[in-house]
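If you are new to this repository, start here. Below is one unmodified record pulled from the training split, so you can see the exact layout before writing a loader.
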Amino acid sequence: MNNIMMNKTIIALAIAAGSALTSVAQAADGKINFTGTITDSAYTVTTGTKTQTVNLGTISSSGFDGAGAVSGASRFSVALESCPGTVTTASVVFDGQPDTNNTSLLALTPGTGVATSVGIGIYEEDSTTLIPVATKSAEKDLSPAGATFNFIAKYVATDAAVGAGTANAVSDFTISYN
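And here is the target side for that same chain:
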């Protein structure tokens, strides 16, 4: 009797294990293929633009008249040199903590006494085209001598009332070959 009981237990466990495995399998609704290329360090970001500070100045909170209002525009550049002939175009991607009210903007660095309802926008050279955080800038043609990408940073109100305080942010950038 013990052998019969033991065989039934083993069979029951085998059925339970098999049904547990089948419940893990799910039907796919689609497929995503990831593609790309890794290159040698094919360019050099110039020393003067690799690490920089962009001063947006001291701006009155009353200078913002509602969400989307901008102030404190400052130009900055990212310059490349020693580009190989095999790479013909590139763009720049700015990464950082996105603002919670407007994820296209950089959030201000958290801390005591930080301004409220404002983020920092990075714009193309035309000063009107916002480059959202973690999004490629416009492409620029590269020559073996290099290229310079010009940008404008601005404070951007994310609410009707901007609160006074420090208004700093940090962004890393990556060159993306196209």
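Two things worth knowing about this chain: The two ends are 74 Å apart (CA to CA). The beta strands are 44-45, 70-81, 89-95, 118-123, 140-141, 146-157, 172-177.
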